[in-house]
């Protein structure tokens, strides 16, 4: 029924059907049914003049005209009526056809005035109101809220006006409403106070009141989100059933010894919780596919190390892959240091490892004598073969594509457990909708004793003051990062900026008192590594760099991060960069330097940085500014093209939907209960329908 072409609807016909399809993508009954009004003229309420508020919505006021006058103005005249109710007075104004109104308006008779109000001085004013005698108004049957449909100029020019659209929808509802099945179980609807499907559809188009409209929309949005969650959770469950994982059931000597003797600090509660989640995955018999989110500096590395030890304790090899050479090196060094007391060997494999050094690594991986390999993309090459890879950890996931992740899977007969670590916190809402089929752990707590980084925004003109501040910090023994943007399109220009900046810094901070490092993408890996190392060792006080240092670099003594041309960075990048400082016990600073003229978005980004250190909050703002598609890349954004709900605005509803979807599947995984038949049926309809109605029909 719902797939009937729209041309068969009474009042449509081939011509209009063509037009509707071309202009609004409405081809079937279903399309029209789900073409919802984007706003309503609210005629459900009558306002008293004393209640008027500044707003863009139309209001309806009952009153009497007590006075009429024309006022001369530069061009022509205007007619002003003083309109009074028992609570006060306002003005009705006409700029055209004054005489016509003059002749017809009746003083002292009650009218209903409908329109937008503006405030001029102390007086509310309504220009060219819809005016109707109250007597007449009362006689007519009123549609209390008139739907206004999204449409195009072409449509209304060709006679398909808003009124025609509304009539078509009303006709459609009359025809199909009775046949539409309920799609949410009664119990769930009762529990959440959700209105029935048929009522929701009627009220979403022709509501009796704002309240009923809100309830109708909530019901339809909930349904959409609930079914997305159900589909994702079921996909996840079936993946787990399909793909067996190695069982790491024992906590062995390595893990135990390290935990009791070599752990350099007490784990935070969040780290402990995440480890429990990981351990339960590893023992479950299903392949782990877990995303570990944790803000910069939250301590993901130690979680990775402990997970690696679990793999080793159970007789498997483990590998950690990072997106950049610098980061891989850092991990290698940090992890080797941590594991030194246990006498476990770790190797590093990156693009710059020489052929002759590579051979023994590959050999010992293949014969199983090398338990841990850390590296970059080089690890993914086909000739890198493990004896029994049981765990693959990927750091900074947003740099890796899905295809690359799949390569790790293929290193074994059966896929290793996968732990993906990311420091770009994916907003909760997005994580829920996108990774419904991936388990997510959060380290939502920083190690104790961290002082929040203090962030300020300065312009180019403040540079001398900034330099003076740097000198003070360096005198206290601290170190400083100065970061320049590097955007691919303007690479040449960016390098010039970087070099100019480096030169002016060198002049301002002369040797031998000051030592500067510089690191950028065009340098050879060895040169980069050499410069990084000098900074890490404290031989240089200032690190001038492009965003190559964005990920993972850990120099606790660095206390100032200066970001040049900060307006050119995205929010998540700014947040990542700021995370490079604030790792020690000292107060740290982030100084965002920008030009004087900023776009609104840039202004919002910099302000957000100044106002908060909370990665989740920042990511939510980012999502709002850029929209979900852009944030995740177009490839994944399809998941997010919702019909009714809005992933940002309806995040609370999404949480509720998620919760109830989980609950349903834990009670009745196969949806065999008669009460759940409608759910099963709708899910199977979603399974075959690969169009944009997947989630709502
Ligand atoms: P990220 O999550 O950004 O990868 P790291 O794992 O690099 O963070 O940890 C950042 C810093 O915090 C490191 O110096 C690490 O040694 C330290 N750290 C991690 N966990 C704790 C903890 N529980 N207590 C104290 N310091 C910690
Ligand atoms: Mg890290």
UniProtKB/TrEMBL annotation:
Catalyzed reactions: Couples ATP hydrolysis with the unwinding of duplex DNA by translocating in the 3'-5' direction; ATP + H2O = ADP + phosphate + H(+)
Every Helicase ATP-binding domain range: 281-443
Gene Ontology terms describing biological process: DNA recombination; DNA repair
CDD domains, A to Z: DEXHc_RecG, RecG_wedge_OBF
Top EC category: isomerase
GO MF terms, alphabetically ordered: 3'-5' DNA helicase activity; ATP binding; ATP hydrolysis activity; DNA binding
Keyword list, A-Z: ATP-binding, DNA damage, DNA recombination, DNA repair, DNA-binding, Helicase, Hydrolase, Isomerase, Nucleotide-binding
Domain of life: Bacteria
Start and end residues of each Helicase C-terminal domain: 462-629
Keyword DNA damage in record: yes
Assigned EC number: 5.6.2.4
Pfam family membership, one: Helicase_C
Family according to the record: Belongs to the helicase family. RecG subfamily.
Job description of the protein: Plays a critical role in recombination and DNA repair. Helps process Holliday junction intermediates to mature products by catalyzing branch migration. Has replication fork regression activity, unwinds stalled or blocked replication forks to make a HJ that can be resolved. Has a DNA unwinding activity characteristic of a DNA helicase with 3'-5' polarity.
Cited NCBIfam families: PRK10917.1-3, PRK10917.2-2, recG
Protein name as it appears in the record: ATP-dependent DNA helicase RecG
Species of origin: Robiginitalea myxolifaciens
């Amino acid at each position: 029924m719902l797939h009937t072409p729209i041309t068969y609807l009474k009042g449509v016909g081939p011509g209009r059907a063509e037009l509707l399809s071309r202009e609004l993508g409405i081809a079937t009954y279903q399309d029209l049914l789900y073409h919802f009004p984007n706003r309503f003229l609210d005629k459900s309420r009558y306002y008293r003049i004393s209640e008027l508020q500044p707003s863009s919505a139309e209001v309806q006021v009952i009153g009497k005209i007590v006075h009429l006058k024309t006022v001369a103005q530069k061009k022509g005249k205007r007619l002003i009526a003083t309109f009074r109710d028992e609570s006060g007075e306002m003005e009705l104004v006409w700029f055209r056809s004054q005489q016509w109104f003059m002749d017809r308006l009746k003083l002292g008779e009650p009218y209903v005035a409908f329109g937008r109000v503006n405030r001029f001085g102390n007086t509310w004013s309504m220009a060219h109101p819809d005016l109707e005698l109250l007597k007449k108004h009362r006689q007519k049957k009123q549609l209390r809220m008139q739907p206004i449909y999204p449409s195009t100029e072409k449509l209304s020019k060709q006679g398909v006006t808003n009124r025609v659209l509304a009539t078509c929808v009303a006709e459609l509802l009359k025809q199909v409403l009775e046949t539409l099945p309920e799609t949410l179980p009664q119990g769930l609807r009762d529990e959440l106070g959700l209105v029935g499907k048929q009522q929701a559809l009627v009220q979403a188009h022709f509501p009796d009141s704002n309240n009923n409209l809100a309830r109708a929309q909530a019901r339809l949005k909930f349904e959409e989100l609930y079914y997305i969650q159900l589909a994702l959770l079921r996909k996840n469950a079936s993946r787990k059933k399909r793909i067996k994982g190695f069982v790491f059931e024992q906590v062995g000597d390595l893990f135990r010894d390290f935990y009791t003797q070599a752990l350099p600090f007490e784990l935070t509660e969040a780290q402990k919780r995440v480890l429990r989640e990981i351990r339960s995955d590893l023992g479950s018999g299903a392949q782990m596919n877990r995303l570990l989110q944790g803000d910069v500096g939250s301590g993901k590395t130690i979680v990775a190390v402990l997970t690696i030890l679990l793999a080793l304790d159970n007789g498997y090899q483990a590998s950690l892959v990072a997106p950049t050479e610098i980061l891989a090196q850092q991990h290698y060094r940090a992890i080797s240091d941590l594991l030194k007391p246990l006498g476990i060997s770790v190797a590093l494999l990156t693009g710059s490892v020489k052929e002759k050094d590579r051979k023994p690594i590959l050999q010992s991986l293949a014969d199983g004598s090398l338990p841990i390999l850390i590296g970059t993309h080089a690890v993914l090459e086909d000739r890198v073969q493990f004896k029994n890879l049981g765990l693959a950890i990927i750091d900074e996931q947003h740099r890796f594509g899905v295809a690359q992740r799949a390569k790790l899977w293929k290193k074994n007969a059966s896929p290793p457990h996968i732990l993906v670590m990311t420091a770009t916190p994916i907003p909760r809402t997005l994580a829920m909708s996108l990774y419904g089929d991936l388990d997510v752990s959060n380290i939502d707590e920083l190690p104790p004793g961290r002082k929040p980084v203090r962030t300020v925004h300065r312009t180019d003109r403040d540079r001398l003051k900034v330099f003076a501040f740097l000198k003070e910090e360096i005198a206290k023994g601290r170190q400083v990062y100065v970061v320049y943007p590097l955007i691919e399109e303007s690479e040449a220009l960016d390098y010039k900026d970087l070099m100019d900046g480096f030169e002016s810094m060198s002049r301002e901070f002369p040797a031998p008192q000051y030592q500067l490092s510089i690191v950028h993408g065009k340098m050879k890996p060895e040169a980069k590594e050499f410069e990084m190392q000098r900074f890490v060792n404290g031989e240089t006080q200032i690190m001038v760099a492009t965003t190559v240092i964005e990920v993972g670099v850990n120099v606790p003594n660095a206390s100032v991060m200066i970001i040049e041309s900060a307006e050119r960075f995205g929010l998540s990048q700014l947040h990542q960069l700021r995370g490079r400082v604030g790792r020690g016990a000292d107060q740290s600073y982030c100084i965002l330097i920008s030009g004087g003229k900023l776009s609104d978005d840039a202004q919002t980004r910099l302000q957000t940085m100044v106002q908060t250190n909370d990665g989740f909050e920042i990511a939510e703002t980012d999502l709002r500014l850029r929209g979900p598609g852009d944030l995740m890349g177009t490839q994944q954004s399809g998941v997010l093209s919702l019909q009714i709900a809005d992933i940002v605005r309806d995040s609370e509803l999404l949480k509720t939907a998620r919760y109830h979807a989980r609950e349903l599947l834990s009670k009745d995984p196969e949806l065999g209960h008669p009460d759940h038949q409608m759910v099963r049926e709708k899910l199977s309809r979603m399974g075959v329908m690969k169009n944009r109605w997947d989630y709502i029909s």
